[in-house]
Design brief:
Elements lengths: L1 H24 L12 E6 L2 E2 L4 E7 L8 E5 L2 E2 L1 E6 L2 E5 L7 E7 L2 E11 L4 E7 L13 E7 L8 E5 L2 E9 L2 E5 L6 E8 L2 E9 L5 E2 L1 H4 L18 E2 L5 E2 L4 E4 L2 E4 L3 E2 L10 E7 L10 E12 L2 E27 L7 E2 L8 E2 L7 E3 L2 E2 L1 E3 L5 E2 L8 E9 L3 E13 L5 E13 L2
Parallel strand pairs: 2-9
Antiparallel strand pairs: 1-3, 3-7, 4-5, 4-8, 6-7, 8-9, 10-11, 11-14, 12-13, 12-15, 13-14, 15-16, 17-34, 18-22, 19-24, 20-21, 22-23, 23-34, 24-33, 25-30, 25-31, 25-32, 25-33, 25-34, 26-27, 28-29
Length: about 425
Amino acid sequence: MKIIRQILLVSGIVSILGLMAGCEGDPKTQLYVYPEPVVESIYPTTGYTGSQLAILGENFGDRVEPVKVFFGDIEAKVLACKNDMIIVVVPEDARTCDISLKIWNYEYAAAGHFIVADKPVITGLSTDNPSYALFGRKGDVLTITGTSFGEELDDVKVAVGDMEAEVSAVSDTEIKAVVPGGYGYGEVAVTVRGYQTIGGRILDPDYVGDITSYALVNYCQPFKATDDAPLSNWCIPVGWSFNDKFYSDDNGEKVLMRPLLIEPNGNFKTGCLGFLSNQWSDALHKIGYENAKLYQTCYLPAGEYEVTVDVAESALIAGTLEAIAAVSKGKATLPDLQGEYGKNGWTVADESNLFAGGDGSRSYVDLTSDKTITYSADRGSVPVSFKADIPVDCDVTVGFTGVVKMANGRQGGSVLITGIKVVRIK
């Protein structure tokens, strides 16, 4: 047996040596050695986290896999590699530091020095329009305040909506620009050395058309919630205010009955604003509420407006369900509703803060005149509209007043809203 093992061992060694000899002699097998990369410079040498940076040079190859770039000890994401250029993203937590580079077995401890600049921040907007500081006609002067704008006029660009605005002066904390024509309404964007930041919105007071994104925020699906943890799928909507009727007393503590429903596994994955009280809901929403108000305020130019609310559900099983959408004069001025529990026909208690709505009506609409609208994916939401004739430039409140209560602690109802649109007709 010992002799057999020795024969097998020798045979195995001979076989391996034969394979190695075959490889060495195979003319089709070649060993490729990459030429040593040469780093010439980086561009830019000053920039922002999250921006792109180029490493320029030679012999980088064309494969991303062997390339590693570090800002200090933080590895950067490599977007592309060509023989003379490598493109990376400056890591979000990078600081001013040396950049190191590794390609295959070649290493460069100092490919360049990169200065991380403070990102520009917009803290305020205003125009010299005599009517309102956030109205801007063509030729008005737009003043943008903030930080880290720099001092170089050529480094800064300003846009209003889709239109570029001429920049006339720049300091580190202030930019002056000329309001362009034809923008209608839009967000103000400032770009400094390639980095863009968005500020607030301005409106051409002569613009006619859809102005929803000027007048409101978070007005349609997908709705945005605050960082507060949801309670039984109920959240707090970003940008909306609510009165104390949305609060309930829980052992001496005021607890908010949240007005934004987001169901990750239900019908409203992207959210809806709601007034709801029924026996199947969480404990808070079993309580119900009277004259709960959910609203936003804005400043609108004089004109005739049409407001459309998309109602996904207006359904009453038993109890009381009444809700209106309205535009009222001033801030936080939505009217109350009055009526008798268990009966239809609740009315607006005081119309003095409402605008004319055309044809003798006022600037509101009953969202619950039909209490049989249940959720339907096939049908979608039902649009309900009303008009508001605003005679002068002024502050207005846009929103909803609701009354919801179960019948003797049973059943109940709900109004669920998937969107709102504000259009200036003339």
